[in-house]
Amino acid sequence: MLSRSVRHFSSSSASLKKLKIGLIPGDGIGREVIPAGQAVLEKLPKSLDLQFDFVTLDAGYELFQRTGTALPEKTVEVLKSECDGALFGAVSSPSVKVAGYSSPIVALRKKMGLYANVRPVKSVTSSDKPVDMVIVRENTEDLYVKEERTYNAEDGSRVAEAIKRISENATSKIATMAYEIALSRQKIRETSNLSSLHSKPSVTVTHKSNVLSASDGLFREVCKNVWESNKDKFGSVEYKEQIVDSMVYRMFREPEVFDVVVAPNLYGDILSDGAAALVGSLGVVPSANVGDNFAIGEPCHGSAPDIEGKGISNPIATIRSTALMLEFMGYQEAAAKIYEAVDANLVEGKVKTPDLGGNSTTQQVIDDIVGRF
């Protein structure tokens, strides 16, 4: 659980009782797990006084193969004009260059102004490594600006280059969000009975400025400047730094020392997926793509073509991403109900998909979780 988000788009859950959620299944098992998000929203206790409408929207590589478009303008228009939040399933991006194709989720983040990818990772069962951290990843730049070129060297061999872009403005925004998340997590630790590995808030800035002194150097400098110039607000947050390669080492050796981690796009992507190994599977790790006025919940796993159509995809990452979306929309009580039901399922350990060592189906896990409301 993020422990109450910091970008509430509604002043209170009573101010808007009927919400419209965009559903973007995408590719592969995205079509199997997105219905889990819809199911938990529909089954939330009536006492929460929330109602949901849904609209299914197109995006994905398979759509591109059929139509030549991976992210239709209509999808973006409906999200902006009609939806209060959204869920994105998965995308089957090819590993080789395909003329005219670019990732729809990357494009969606840019078009919707979703500059942060927020991924909480928390151990629940005794078999997990002790971990309770949030990885805050800058979502709009770094190597993911997709500005690449290939040319021939003087000897005729091919050379490929890619732009790594780090800007002061984008870094300032992501650093501010990281410090705010650290403060909000600490507030919950102090005012609730939720268990935690941490007694005080901290943010670890992850970079490689010892080699990339200009790009990562700027990221490091701006993150530190935001902290130092806002001591009145962020002074209680401990500022830390970690070179990215040693960050990976420490994350697996002693994950319990990290509270909030902030990183440029590529490092954050790698760290987020690696952190999933600490809690058993990508199938249980949620994320949210967040801007100032919108949030899209997105499970961390991919399209998983090897298990597509078998009915055994783990829906927990999507269900937790649904709760995370609700947190950023300002509906913490509803989110908490979902988190509690998921945690109870995991602790009991009887109904679980094969990736967690069980033999249950996707639908059986969904039914077990919503049955706990």
From TrEMBL:
GO molecular function, one term: homoisocitrate dehydrogenase activity
Domain Isopropylmalate dehydrogenase-like: 20-369
Keywords: Amino-acid biosynthesis, Lysine biosynthesis, Magnesium, Metal-binding, NAD, Oxidoreductase, Phosphoprotein
Catalytic activity: (2R,3S)-homoisocitrate + NAD(+) = 2-oxoadipate + CO2 + NADH
Any one GO cellular component localisation term in the record: mitochondrion
SUPFAM superfamilies per the UniProt record, alphabetical: Isocitrate/Isopropylmalate dehydrogenase-like
GO annotation terms (biological process): isocitrate metabolic process; lysine biosynthetic process; tricarboxylic acid cycle
Superkingdom to which the source organism belongs: Eukaryota
Pathway in which this enzyme or protein is active: Amino-acid biosynthesis; L-lysine biosynthesis via AAA pathway; L-alpha-aminoadipate from 2-oxoglutarate: step 4/5
Uppermost EC category: oxidoreductase
Pfam families per record: Iso_dh
Cofactor(s) named in the record: Mg(2+)
Metal-binding is among the record's keywords: yes
Enzyme Commission number(s): 1.1.1.87
Entry similarity comment: Belongs to the isocitrate and isopropylmalate dehydrogenases family.
UniProt cross-references to PANTHER family, sorted A to Z: DECARBOXYLATING DEHYDROGENASES-ISOCITRATE, ISOPROPYLMALATE, TARTRATE (PTHR11835), HOMOISOCITRATE DEHYDROGENASE, MITOCHONDRIAL (PTHR11835:SF48)
Protein name: homoisocitrate dehydrogenase
The organism of origin for this protein: Candidozyma auris
